[in-house]
Amino acid sequence: MRPALLYRRHVASSLRRAYTARTEPPPPRQTRRPEPVNSTSPVAKSSSANKSPAAPPSSLAPWIFGALAAGLGFYSLQLYLAASKPYHNTRIADLAAQKDVAERYDYTATNFDSEVGLSELLMGVNGLRKKLARKCHGDVLEVSCGTGRNLGYYDIEGKDAKVESLGFIDISPQMVEVCQQKWAALFGNKMAQQKLKPGLKLRFMTGSALGDMPMAPSGKKYATIIQTMGLCSTASPAELVENMARHLDTSNPDSRILLLEHGRSYLPWLNRVLDNSAERHAELHGCWFNREIGELVEKAALQSGLEVVSERRHHLGTTWVFELKPTEDAVKKAQAGLPPVATPQTNEREQEGWLSKLGWK
Length: 361
Description:
Blueprint: H1 3-23, H2 47-50, H3 61-84, H4 105-108, H5 112-123, H6 125-133, E1 138-143, E2 163-170, H7 173-187, H8 190-195, E3 201-206, E4 224-228, H9 237-246, E5 256-262, H10 268-285, H11 293-304, E6 306-314, E7 319-326, H12 328-335
Parallel strand pairs: 1-2, 1-4, 2-3, 4-5
Antiparallel strand pairs: 5-7, 6-7
Helix pairs in contact: 3-10, 9-11
InterPro entries: Methyltransf_Superfamily (IPR050508), SAM-dependent_MTases_sf (IPR029063)
Region (Disordered): 16-55, 333-361
Pfam family, one: Methyltransf_23
């Protein structure tokens, strides 16, 4: 067959197939109907639901309580051993047998706050400091101020603040320097200074509280003298209280001497612990914490024309809080310009009973 004829047949066949594809309708689409769901047949759960619940994290509570119990047990054991030891020095509670350790503070001033901060916080001593400092009024002198652990508690903000002037004195220059730095940190910025009472006078002084101390900025004696944890650090605690009384304005019946101290307990076994560790504690921290503070303060008050307004004891009797004021006789003599004369206290204090063991009188 000739090639031309074959070509014409091929073209005719191609045109016929194209025409047929355009005119014929497309075949129907095959769709699959969903099968009905049988409510009785189990439904497969999702993969997330098939996961087993996560195991709860192991609790740390048993370990924490166990560690606390172990620590308490160890502390109790050490306390028992200390209370069972015989006295190394039977005269260690006698003032005459206790050496002067005041110079120790020259070396501990920088780290003093970090050494006592946690223990005072846990024992609530900061709260006692605050209550005592808030009672201060008028011209205030803090004796044995140390690093200024009472700085943030005085009523010195606002025009109605009770404190007119605030003075700090300590025998250790290093302690006074830290006290000044702390004041600058608390009240050195402009905003804090604007909150202070207008005209508030502030002084930092280095000197012994057993000798002559500067008068108040007004030229008069002080309306309030406060000391916290100072009678344990001086070789002459009773004389120190008497000297504070000489610088107190005894012509004002509202004048006060406020003391926060630590000393002997009312529990014999605890006093044994204090006595056995007193010498080592004094060498490290510059403080004799086994002194009979109540007896010392009462003796000094009698010699100075003061009376004990209140006395509170805390921490099994080892922390003492005193408030002293001039007796009526001392006020009258001071107002008349007569020299103070030691007189017995006019008001008899209640005898100590079982309430005194809880710190109440």
